[in-house]
Amino acid sequence: MERKTALKPRAAAVKAKAAKKTCKRMSGEERRAQIVKIASDLFSKKGFKGTTTREIARGAGISEAVIFKHFSHKEDLYKAIIDSRCVVSEGESCLISMLKGKKGAEVFRTVAVYMLEEHHKDPSFMRLLTYSALEQHTLSELFVKTRALELLGFLEDKINEMIREGWMREVDPALAARAFIGMVVHYSITQEIYGFKRYFKRPLEEVAESFVDIFLEGTRR
Q: Which of 83, 143, 155, 164 is the most exposed place for a label (fewest CB within 10 A)?
């Protein structure tokens, strides 16, 4: 009995050592991505005023100091959240990269399908932006100045091109781009945040095609 008791601490130590070896330590990049995801989830559920760095740290199983190590300024964390949803390699917009080489109706169809599908799959980023705007928070302003204006500018250029080539009558390109994005965003907000999808259901491809037709028919030369 005495021998068996004596062996228990040693066995426990060996087991703990083995567990430590099998537990992979996160790389800096993995830890950064984890913080971004947990922060994004909390902000989208509780808003920015209702979320603390202590809660983010607790969700990640780390100290607040680790958050500040990866994001020395809060604006760095907000930018990382936006980039995690909107950017591919080398800082390029996911959507802009998909639009390269496309012309005419295909540009607007690609935008509509992408945005409708992304918001349907995961409306948390849309909720996060809504919280941010209502609370007059930095993140929504940062999003508008970078990704939103980038997409609108791209669409303005495409509309100008369509006007020059005779596909479209003379319209204000900035207003036309806002009108098209407005249809898509409003539909997503009412469906995914207001809960309209309980009463109104359409295949997303059909919705996208309808919006593109309405927009192009309304601006046709």
A: 164
